[in-house]
Design a protein that fits this description.
There is one protein chain. By secondary structure, the chain is an alpha/beta fold. Helix content is 44%, strand content 11%. The chain has 11 helices and 6 strands. A 6-stranded parallel β-sheet has the order 3-2-1-4-5-6, with helices on both faces. Strand 2, helix 7 and strand 3 form a beta-alpha-beta unit. The protein is elongated and about 60 Å long.
Length: 242
């Protein structure tokens, strides 16, 4: 087996944007983002709280201030707590964690890139150990929830999200944090990173000593910077298990 460990990016690599006009009733990622105020208002009502008429503005202002304050550690869970503070509500994790999920919304199985679920299944069946490394304001708990919702969480061990550790790709610290979570695997074991961003994913992984597979979502490839440029996910399986 060429790569006993494979880490994956999330957005753009596992999840796509969803397809307008697809034969499905599920919304696109854009539609989910546009629905966040409605979801948050329903969450507040469910907990018996008053919904402010300018909820959208409060969310946006709170988000802007907290992003400046927390930097790379800003997350939707931080936003939910700050939102409660802004409304003068007790910051109860029992409620704010659910509100954070309401802000983020769902990720649907119809957003998965064609072939990615089959590729993950095939890699898992031959014993490849996998994880997720993502630059995101979704915490690892939230990302795990999203992966579980589309039936993929079972294929991954570590789920490393930048907001949890305050380090973003391509900085080596985020790759190091992920690698430490496989302490039983020898340090010289080859690792493959699968992503769709040349600077953050391909060059970041290479600088840390890993190989990268580049998901080509637009015109052009990696110009040799990745060991594989791919559109078909089966090519990742062939590479990793070859």
């Amino acid at each position: 087996m060429r790569y006993p460990i494979v880490f994956w990016d999330s957005g753009g690599t596992i999840f796509g944007p969803g397809r307008e006009g697809a034969l499905t009733d599920t919304p696109t990622s854009t539609q989910v983002r546009e629905g966040r105020e409605h979801r948050v208002s329903l969450a507040l009502e469910m907990f018996g709280h008053r919904v402010p008429p300018d909820l959208g503005r409060i969310l946006q202002d709170t988000s802007s201030g907290l992003q400046e304050k927390f930097g790379a550690r800003y997350s939707l869970e931080v936003l939910a707590s700050g939102f409660y503070e802004r409304l003068g509500l007790p910051v109860l994790p029992e409620e704010t964690l659910l509100v954070a999920d309401a802000i983020g919304g769902p990720r649907y199985r119809t957003w998965l890139w064609d072939g990615v679920a089959d590729a993950l299944r095939a890699l898992a069946e031959v014993g490849v150990r996998m994880g997720v490394i993502a630059d995101t304001d979704w915490t690892g708990r939230m990302m795990s929830r999203a992966l579980a919702g589309v039936g993929l969480r079972k294929y991954f061990g570590p789920v490393i999200c930048s907001c949890d550790i305050g380090v973003c790709k391509p900085a080596p610290g985020i790759f190091a944090a992920a690698r430490r979570l496989f302490p039983d695997v020898p340090s010289d074991t080859p690792v493959l990173y699968v992503g769709d961003n040349l600077e953050k994913d391909v060059e970041g992984a290479a600088a840390f000593g890993w190989d990268a597979a580049y998901h080509v979502t637009t015109r052009g490839g990696s110009s040799g910077r990745a060991v594989l440029d791919f559109v078909q996910y089966q090519d990742v399986v062939t590479l990793a298990t070859g």
